[in-house]
Design brief:
The protein is an alpha/beta fold. The protein has helices at residues 5-25, 87-91, 98-123, 194-199, 229-240, 264-272, and strands at 34-38, 43-46, 72-75, 77-86, 140-143, 149-152, 155-158, 163-166, 175-188, 201-214, 220-224, 256-259, 289-292.
């Protein structure tokens, strides 16, 4: 085809359309564990998400709980994906393959939050949160109803394949996906662009600014113990009994069990089998949704 401005405009439209259609059409999974926060700055500052006590009977003056606005900071990151197409390929009508490639770029951009959020969850075993403890830890400090510091655990221990119980019934989630700039694709296809002059190729580049960080540690319980009915039951018990700041009963609902492929069989046996290994009624059947996440590596 003749490489004219009109032909390039049509090609750009086709590639942008393919990119955007896939960008909005991909089924993602990060929303089960992450809340999305629209960011307006390079560094987004968050209050400490654990320091809200219970409602109290109003006697006398109000008791004001001031959120510490410097609880923790999540810095946005910049991501790109760029493809080059030779001018001769366009001239020779070799353009049919590039629309699927643009679609794949859109899928990659759409799945970036998945990659970041699941990676962040796995970092919880060896990365500290705002309270100075690892996100999954046995010693999270909170205050009891009398104002005394006590330790609360959201970690079951162990060194094996990780599994997670999640309360996904709340707006706040254990992970934060911070969206600063939505994904978009930009062409460099002007016949006077430097890339055309120097390398005889057109460029299409996708860009997205975002980040992932930890949210409320109370809403996730991580374990690297063997996934057995006994350990599953202990994890549920720990979450349901968990108290927050000033003795607040959190009333957590461990509705989601997240596992990697390594624990899929054990998880299905716990959550779907009618009978346990001894032939008795499986009391854990249907007590949580099962999510097998292929991006988990631990």
């Amino acid at each position: 085809m003749d490489v004219t401005k009109a032909a390039l405009a049509a090609l750009n439209t086709g590639i942008t359309t393919a990119f955007n259609a896939r960008l909005t059409g991909v089924e993602t999974t990060y929303g089960r564990i992450a809340m999305t926060v629209n960011s307006t700055t390079r560094d987004q500052v968050y209050p400490k998400l654990s320091e809200l006590g219970p409602m109290r009977e109003w006697v006398g003056e109000r008791f004001i709980e001031r959120l510490e606005t410097d609880g923790f900071v999540i810095r946005n990151r910049k991501f790109e994906k760029t493809i080059a197409v030779g001018v001769d390929d366009i001239s020779d009508d070799q353009v049919g393959i590039y629309t699927p490639i643009a679609s794949d770029m859109g899928q990659t951009a759409a799945e970036l939050p998945d990659e970041l959020c699941w990676e962040q969850l796995e970092k919880g075993f060896d990365t500290k949160h705002y309270d100075g403890q690892f996100f999954f830890d046995t010693d999270h400090p909170v205050l009891d109803k009398d104002g005394n510091e006590i330790s609360v655990s959201n970690f079951g221990g162990g060194t094996g394949a990780a599994w997670y119980l999640i309360d996904d019934t709340r707006v706040i989630r254990p992970v934060i996906f911070q969206d600063r700039e939505a994904a978009k694709i930009t062409p460099k296809t002007s016949l006077t662009d430097d890339n055309v002059f120097h390398r005889d190729e057109f460029l299409w580049g996708a860009k997205r600014r975002c980040a992932a960080g930890f949210g409320a540690w109370q809403l996730a319980y991580g374990s690297r113990q063997p996934l057995t009915p006994e350990n599953y039951g202990l994890a549920r018990q720990a979450m349901i009994a968990m108290t927050g700041h000033r003795g607040r009963k959190l009333n957590l609902k461990p509705k989601l069990l997240v596992v990697s492929a390594a624990n899929e069989g054990a998880a299905r046996e716990i959550l779907t089998a009618e009978r346990n290994a001894a032939g008795a009624t499986n009391i854990w059947r249907n007590t949580a949704d099962l999510m097998v996440e292929g991006r988990l590596t631990l």
